[in-house]
Amino acid sequence: MEFSKDSLQHLLSGNRFVRAIDFHATVDSTNRVASNRAMNGAEEGTVIIADSQTGGRGRLGRVWQSPPGVNLYLSVILRPVIETFRAPQLTLMTGVAVAETMREYGGRDITIKWPNDVLIGGKKVSGILTEIRTERGKIDFVVVGMGVNINIEKALFHTDFRRTSTSLKEETARSHSRSRFTVRLLETFVTWYERYCAQGFAPVKKEWMEYAGITGKFIKVTDRDTVREGTVVGLDENGALLLKEPDGEATCVLSGDVTIIGE
Ligand code: BTN
């Protein structure tokens, strides 16, 4: 199935959340476009999709490799009525939605690496970047950006990521329709978003913990120049990682890269 505005509009016509689809053959960053649209009043449920990005944004100022014809680059505008400090929970919720969609597609050994990497067999298949704008202490909008490696082949990955990244095609040994994947992802996403709005973070946290499987593991978290080590105790209500450091001190980690050192 073709990956175009028409096919996506047709396939997403029954989705109760999607209000408008903005499709670009190429764009700098769907997150940038979504923020811009939201700033100009675009409503919740506006979805920006691109076939390729020239300035795909990753977490911690990194670049998200975004070649044409193979992957999904998608940003969703949300206007949730929640306290500002809860916004990171939406990243974890989106991770669960992506992981669930991957599982449905037959991906085996799906895990989530805190805070936002979805992995198949320990290799990154998707990343999530959440950006938020507040006004007078309240959330004006949240942009949730999802990059999903669908049909990219190993050889096309930048050498820096070749060892640590994968795609749905590499893992399932066949190509997948990006349009159909988008439809399933947005269906799963809206189910989780509605559940989150109605029931809060608890169901997301429960599912996330199952995918993450890091409770009790000894990890290292690197955030620019700071390195912390400790045993994962759980997630707090804001989605921060709770660690017990070797000296027994409890600490909560809000950002950084996680490496599992041991059980
Ligand atoms: C990460 O793992 O570092 C997050 C990557 C997020 C990439 C997606 S692709 C769609 C959206 N637009 C962007 O510029 N970034 C996100």
Quick summary of this structure?
The chain has helices at 5-11, 30-39, 87-104, 168-172, 178-199, 202-212, and strands at 20-27, 46-53, 72-78, 110-113, 117-120, 123-135, 138-148, 218-223, 226-235, 241-244, 250-253, 257-262. It is an alpha+beta fold and 263 residues long. Biotin binds at residues 29-31, 53, 56-59, 62, 64, 73-75, 116-117, 127-129, 145-147.
Structural class: alpha+beta
Q: What is the strand arrangement across the widest sheet? A: 1-2-3-7-6-5-4
Topology as a string of helices (H) and strands (E): HEHEEHEEEEHHHEEEEE
- Which percent band covers the strand fraction? 25-35%
Describe this structure in words.
The chain is of the alpha+beta class and 263 residues long. The chain is built from six helices and twelve strands. Helix 2 (30-39) links the parallel strand 1 and strand 2. Helix 3 packs across helix 5 and helix 3 crosses helix 6. The longest helix is centred in the last third of the chain and has 22 residues, at 178-199. Bound molecules: biotin. Biotin binds next to helix 2, strand 3, strand 6 and strand 7.
